[in-house]
């Protein structure tokens, strides 16, 4: 299996922290690591970047390098689940939809399979996994199925207060069509996050893998800046 690298985000500091938004930017602007024991993050705006220490390096984004060829592949577990559930012939659709609406967590075997399939299909080796793992069962299932084939480079924690997260989701809910962008589902999503996901983040903290990023700021203006702060703070 060609999967040798993985850059992984943690599952939100509350729904709507901006995982999807920021992962899309990272996938677009970061290129492949040059060294297997470190990685290079490359941003469009070089003024946002500086040497962040021995473990991380930054360079200037080169427009001649196609991000789609070299960049991290962004895989959102939530998006993959929604995609699967939307297939007319999916036997899992009903179950997935129930979990999403209730903010509960889909059985790990389902999510892992979808992630693995997407990783293989991409033909790439570097991944930005968005919104997974979300509980201890996810961690165990992930380790069992792909654990020895991946190298988790870091866990990005998008730090954003609950009120802001909820407001973002409710705003998005006006047009997203997502069945969980409403007050009732959001309450449940937050409970799940607090009860099941926070402990997972603490696990990664113990392994020194977590990089905190302030995700409360304006998405476009502050992207490079707070990404740098997040990485810097973690080195
Ligand atoms: N927005 C983003 N950043 C902003 C900023 N800085 N300033 C202003 N606005 C900002 O952003 C949310 C909204 O906020 C968007 O409208 C965006 O424009 C705006 P987004 O980037 O989508 O945030 P994200 O953290 O990705 O929020 P999301 O709602 O996707 O997070 P969830 O973790 O709740 O949702 P996910 O899709 O990952 O999971 C949904 C459900 O699937 C789960 O509840 C669960 O039931 C199931 N699931 C599993 O069971 N297992 C999994 O492994 C994954 C999911
Ligand atoms: Mg998302």
Tags for this model:
binds magnesium ion; Rossmann fold; 235 residues; binds P1-(adenosine-5'-P5-(uridine-5')pentaphosphate; alpha/beta; disordered N terminus; globular; 15% strand; Mitochondrial inner membrane protease subunit
Nutshell version of this structure?
The protein is α/β, with parallel strands linked by helices.
Polypeptide structure, described:
GO terms for molecular function: ATP binding; nucleobase-containing compound kinase activity; serine-type endopeptidase activity; ubiquitin-protein transferase activity. This is Mitochondrial inner membrane protease subunit. One of its GO terms (cellular component) is membrane protein complex. It is a single chain. With 235 residues, the chain is an alpha/beta fold. The chain has a single domain (6-234), classed as Rossmann fold (3-Layer(aba) Sandwich), CATH 3.40.50. The protein is built from nine helices and seven strands, in the order E-H-E-E-H-E-H-H-H-E-H-E-H-H-E-H. It binds P1-(adenosine-5'-P5-(uridine-5')pentaphosphate (UP5) and magnesium ion. Magnesium ion is lined by residues 19-20, 76, 78, 131.
Topology:
Blueprint: E1 6-9, H1 19-29, E2 39-43, E3 56-60, H2 67-70, E4 73-76, H3 77-86, H4 93-102, H5 108-122, E5 127-130, H6 136-146, E6 152-159, H7 162-173, H8 183-206, E7 210-214, H9 223-234
Parallel strand pairs: 1-5, 1-6, 2-3, 4-5, 6-7
The protein binds P1-(adenosine-5'-P5-(uridine-5')pentaphosphate and magnesium ion.
Protein name: Mitochondrial inner membrane protease subunit
Domain U-box: 1-16
């Amino acid at each position: 299996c060609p999967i040798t690298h993985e850059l992984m985000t943690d599952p939100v500091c509350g729904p709507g922290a901006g995982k999807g938004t920021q992962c899309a930017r990272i996938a677009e602007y970061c290129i492949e690591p040059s060294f297997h024991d470190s990685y290079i993050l490359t941003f469009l705006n070089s003024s946002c970047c500086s040497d962040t220490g021995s473990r991380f390096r930054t360079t200037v984004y080169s427009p001649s390098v196609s991000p789609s060829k070299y960049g991290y592949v962004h895989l959102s577990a939530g998006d993959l689940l929604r995609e699967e559930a939307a297939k007319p012939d999916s036997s899992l659709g009903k179950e997935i939809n129930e979990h999403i609406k209730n903010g509960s967590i889909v059985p790990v075997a389902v999510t892992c399979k979808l992630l693995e399939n997407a990783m293989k299909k991409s033909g790439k080796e570097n991944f930005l996994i968005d919104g997974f793992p979300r509980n201890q069962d996810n961690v165990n299932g992930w380790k069992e199925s792909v654990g020895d084939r991946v190298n988790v480079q870091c866990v990005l924690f998008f730090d954003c207060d609950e009120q802001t997260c909820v407001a973002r989701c409710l705003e998005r809910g006006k047009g997203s069509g997502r069945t969980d962008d409403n007050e009732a589902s959001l309450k449940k999503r937050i409970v799940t996050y607090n009860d099941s996901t926070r402990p997972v983040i603490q696990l990664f903290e113990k392994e020194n893998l977590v990089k905190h990023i302030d995700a409360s700021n304006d998405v476009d203006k502050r992207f490079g800046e707070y990404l740098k702060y997040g990485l810097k703070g973690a080195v």
